[in-house]
C-alpha cells in the first residue's frame, strides 16, 4: 500500500503575498521581480505592521527596498496631518547612497502621485529651498545639510510618520551621531523608526535604545557568507613604481570591462587618475572635494561606459552600483576590514562574476590578517610573469603564477544561475529583488555625488597612504 505524503508544501514568499499596495506591487513586477530577498521578506511585514525595526544588513542584501516598499505602502494612504513636511525621512551617510535611495523610491512609486526630494551637501540652497516649498512625501538627506535646514526653520516635521537610519554604523563612523540624535529629537515621538546597520551592538545598540521603541530585531546572512562569485587576488608590491607597473598591466587586459580603483586619500585619487590618463587610459577620479556637478558628470560617464577606470576613495564610492564594473583594484589596502568587503562588493553585481585585486607591501601584513580574519577567507597571492616582487613575505600564501600579459577571469560555478548572492538555491527559479539585482535601464544617469569626508589629505608619495582623508 503506497504511503501518502501528508507533508505541507513549502510556501514560497512572493511580493504578491506581502500585501503591498497594488500600485507598488505593479511597479515591482514591471521591473521583473517576484521573490523578495531574505531581508525584504522579514522586514517588510514587520514595518507594515507598524513596528520599530533594528536590522543588520549590508550593501547588496536588498535593504533599500526593505524600507522603501513599506514606506511607499504607508504613503499610499492619506496623511493624518496636513502640512508640506515629509511623511518619511531617510538619513544616509553619503550623497551617493542618498541618491540611490531616492532613485529606488521614484522607481517603485512611479504609479503613485509622489514627490521625493534629496537634501544633500553641495547642492545650492536656493534649489533646495524651492524643493521644500511644496508638499514632500519622502525626504532623503545627509545629516549635515539637513541640520542646516532645520536651524533655518525650513522643514516642518509635524506630519512625519517614519524615520529611517540607513547604514547607521557608517553615519556614526563619520561623526554624525550628534546630528542624528538632534534630527530625531526634532521629529514627532509617535514616528516609526527603522535602523539598518552592519552591526547592532555597541554604540549602535545604545543609539537604538534611545531612538527606537520596542523594536523588532532582524539579522540577515553575515558578510562572510557572500562574495562567492568574486575571485579575490593578492599581489605583492615592492614600492610605488612596482605598484604602478602592475596596475598599468592589469588595466590593459582586454577582459577588463570597467574597473574601480581605490586609493586611501583624495589627493592620491586625483594624482593616480591623472597618471592613468597620461598612460592612455580612460580614467576619472571621484572624491569628496569635487563639487556635485563634477561628481554627477563623472558617474554618468561611468554608467555610459565613457569612463573605463574610476579612481575613488572609500566614502566616495559607497553606494555605487554600476553593472559594468568587472574589477575592483585596491591600490591601497583599507585600514578597516569592513571597508574591504564594501569595496569588493562593487563588482560581481547581479549574479555576475567579478575579480578583486589587492596590492600589498611588506608593511601591510597586519591589514591583510585583519581582512582575512574578518572575511573568514584567505586571499590567494598571484604573480605576473616579468613583474614579480623582490621581497618575500614572511608567511606567503599559496601563489598562482599568471600567464604573461594575462589577467584572466574567474567564474564561480554558482554565479551563472543569476542569483544576486551568487548562491544557487534548489527549487527556486524566481528572480530575486535586491540592491544587487539587474537593472533594465543601467544608463539612466540618475546619479548623486559622493560622501562627505573630514580628515586632511596626504600627498601621493607612496608614504602614509592609509592615514589621509577618505
From TrEMBL:
- According to the entry, every stretch annotated as the DEAD-box RNA helicase Q domain falls at 13-41
One of the record's GO molecular function terms: hydrolase activity
Membrane-spanning regions, if any? none
> Known Gene3D superfamilies for this protein?
P-loop containing nucleotide triphosphate hydrolases
Q: Where is the composition biased (Basic and acidic residues)?
A: 411-433
Q: Where is the composition biased (Polar residues)?
A: 458-470
UniProt region (Disordered), positions on chain? 386-470
Q: Where is the Helicase C-terminal domain?
A: 246-395
SUPFAM superfamilies tied to this protein: P-loop containing nucleoside triphosphate hydrolases
Query: Which SMART domains does the annotation name?
Result: DEXDc, HELICc
Keywords for this protein: ATP-binding, Helicase, Hydrolase, Nucleotide-binding
Which enzyme class, named as a word?
hydrolase
Give the motif span (Q motif).
13-41
| Superkingdom of this protein's organism | Bacteria
Question: Which residue intervals define the domain Helicase ATP-binding in the entry?
Answer: 44-218
Q: What is its EC number?
A: 3.6.4.13
Q: Which PANTHER family match?
A: ATP-DEPENDENT RNA HELICASE DEAD BOX FAMILY (PTHR47959:SF17), ATP-DEPENDENT RNA HELICASE RHLE-RELATED (PTHR47959)
Homology family: Belongs to the DEAD box helicase family.
Q: What is this protein identified as?
A: ATP-dependent RNA helicase RhlE
Organism name:
Candidatus Nitrotoga arctica
Provide the taxonomic classification. Bacteria, Pseudomonadati, Pseudomonadota, Betaproteobacteria, Nitrosomonadales
The primary gene name is rhlE
